[in-house]
Amino acid sequence: PLNDTGIQGIELHLDVNFDDVVTGLVAGFGHQGHEGVWEAELEEAFLHWNVTDVFAIGGGQFLTAFGFQADRHLHDWFFVNQNLANSRLLNEGELITQGGEILVKTPSSGLLTLGFGQVKTHAHEEDPGPHPLDEVHADEAGFSDSIFTVDYRFRLPVDDSMIGSASLAVGENGFERDSTVYGFGFRKVWNGHDHGYGGPDFCAGAIMLQGEFIGRAVDAFNEGGDAVEFSDRGVSTALHYGVSDRATLSLRHDWVSAVEVAELSDKNRFSAALTAFVDPEQRVRARIQYDHLQDAEIESENVIWFQLQLQWGGTGGSHAGHGH
Question: Any idea of the CA torsion for 6, 28, 291, 305, to the nearest 10 degrees?
Fold first, then answer.
């Protein structure tokens, strides 16, 4: 959320399915930006040709598969806000590729996704300066041109209720040099049905523990034109408990590292959220969330959020963690 109050997002989704051979999605997104100004964009528009039961190719514009969080839409999130690691290291938490995908299903419900193309970028407000010659603009560290990604999600052979992920993204950044982002994670579910590529259907007593690490190496230039390199990293860990068939309690800890040359501070955030359906058809969902942020620059901050989600069309019920 960018404001104290407002409409965080309006999502329009159109699923495409021709006899399970050609599938796809068109997704639009509108929201109130800074100072309540409305913004809208086409978030996804892609098709997949399912050549066989285990191999598919496709293309268009799509949220890039990278770990458990990056390719989820806003209504899929377990918390009001994006993970700190995704926000810092993956193009402000919205890494969108315009290009192609290759998807391969592997034994034991694994999914290997290869992506390639151009990154959809967002404009940033420029600070006129003046700037110190040794300063590095952190916004330029994100991907801005060509990109290649690999994402693999798989069940662990020692425990089929645990899913692992390994991801890599390599591409050109705003300095017209290279950025490399890598990550790995795990997810363990108790007393709940796991969807493999997504998450659990939470019923009373279901528990999910999820952790994700993301690291980044950046080749950059400072204001003086000298070539510099820096790296940063982050971790997000969350625990979810099904209080009932309609309510889920979630706890999260986020951390991202400091980068002195880019003037990025070390941050820790602790979050607690209670999410519940409030109507019989499960189309109205309310969430209350508390955040405690510890930031080396601003010291500490406490925030309470209240979020209300309304769904028209489609099937009611929980979509959290299912992905698309």
Answer: 30
Cα separations in angstroms, 280 against 18, 192, 246, 247, 293: 32, 22, 10, 13, 35
In angstroms, rounded to a whole number, what is the distance separating the alpha carbons of residues 90 and 65? 11
CB 116 within 8 A of CB 149: yes
Calpha distance 253→239 (Å, rounded): 9
Of 159, 174, 148, which Cα lies nearest the Cα of 262?
174
What DSSP element (H or E) covers 85?
Answer: helix 84-89
**Cis bond before residue 132 (omega within 30° of 0):** no
The whole-number pLDDT of residue 320 equals: 47
Cα first-last separation, the chain: 23
Q: Would you tell me how many other CB atoms lie within 10 Å of the CB of residue 120?
A: 19
Q: Can you read off the two tokens belonging to residue 157?
A: 């052979």
pLDDT given at position 194: 57
Are 220 and 232 a contacting pair, CB within 8 Å? no
Q: How far is the CA of 231 from the CAs of 89, 140, 292, 295, in angstroms? A: 10, 13, 26, 19
Please report the pLDDT score of residue 294 as a whole number. Answer: 95
pLDDT at 198: 46
CA distance 276 to 286: 6
Cβ atoms of 323 and 197 within 8 Å: the answer is yes
Give, as one character, the DSSP assignment of residue 245. S
pLDDT at 248 over 70: yes
Handedness of CA 50, 54, 58, 61 (dihedral sign): positive
Distance between CA 49 and CA 103 in Å, rounded?
Answer: 10
| Whole-number average pLDDT of the chain | 90
pLDDT tens profile 85-125: 999 999 999 999 999 999 999 987 899 999 999 999 876 66
